[in-house]
User: What shape does this take?
Amino acid sequence: MIKLSFHGAAGTVTGSKYLLDVNGTRILIDCGMYQGAKELRQRNWNPPPFDPTSISAIVLTHAHIDHVGYLPRLVKQGFAGEVYCTPPTAEIASITLEDTAHLQLEDAEFRNKKKLTSHEIALPLFTLEDVQAVEERFVSTPYDTWTKINSVFRFRYRGAGHLLGAASVELEMVDDGRRVTMLFSGDVGRYGNPLVRNPSEPPECDYLVCESTYGGRMHPPEDPYFLFAELINRAIAEKRVLLIPSFAIGRTQQIIYMIDGLLRSKMITPIQVHVDSPMAISATDIYIKYRGYHAIDPKLLAGNGCVFESKWVHLHRKRESSQTLNKLGGPAMILSASGMLTGGRILHHMINRLPDPKTLVVLVGFMAEGTLGRKLAEGADMVFIHKMPVRVKAKIVSIEALSGHADWYEILHWLETIKRAPKKVFVTHGEASQSAAMAAHIRENRGWETMIPVLDQTVEL
Ligand SMILES: [Zn+2]
Assistant: This one.
């Protein structure tokens, strides 16, 4: 008997964890952290609804924290199997998890110092030692190669775009001689992004688990280069500080390369860009190492032409260096994580700069429900950061054109090569309205049977 349980990314976009159980042999697809609303984040502290020691292996789709961020806790609770991932995912996940551990420690210290915790002492969700225990379990697996996990499961990665090394997972299971195939979409990227390749054609399968982050929306046909040129020129003319919450790997590089392109085409004059992230340099090394995974001109990655060595790029790794930015005047740009404003140094910049009408906050990615990013996108004039009220006088701008997620139309385009209808499509990784819309689009356009699982629901395949 095959059982599939949805222990995350069901009714929400974060906390991805899908458990497959074939007659007692179990694997997990993704092991993500919850982000956003407090009740969701609380789940990161609760024991998981399955025994971590009973899981043989974990197959990761990509390195975003909502897909890998629960690994340190699962290993600490006794998970002792392999963690399969593509080579770039292994490196990006290491950096992301180390950075998250580091930022959580900074946050906990800040809360304890300012007495901002309702607990006796604020603790980080995991430490650097916990992350090191995860890294020992990584098994790098390239795209398009079958890997046998055990006598029940084998899988093959297919490029998904979205983020360097991101993949969909094609999975085969044997249940008492019955062969069943599944496809987990992972997060599906967009077409024509220079930083990552287009998503690969998905294979046919018996069951499909499909994401729906933008299941009810279509990205506007904006040109991000023109939008950015306009914002930067405005910041320069009005001496403003552009503050951009940005995932440190992927989005930050995308913005730096865009600015380089705008400078070369003389659409802007130079603006000083401050990358306030301890991991930006390591991230560039990953792009150099995995040239085959993206379409960036190698000349921009190393040597004289390296964009990150440009006079206008300033990297701030240490906390003291980050603090010098508090007094920075415009025109300038600050890029800092986390991308959805769920923690990290960006929060200190927000406390400092949201009350200043000279600040231009540019939101460039998906903002999950309950996050500070979503509140700002929806026009809040007062927000709470570290339990302190902060007035929003800054101008807030959202740019959807830089999204790393396919919209519903692009997901349908991605699914086009699948001719044989799956027995069922499980629509996950979306807020309720988005998943419902994606399921409706799939039913209406393809006639396939869909189901939207609820959190912790188990289905038999
Ligand atoms: Zn993602």
About this structure: The longest strand covers residues 167-175. The mean pLDDT is 92.
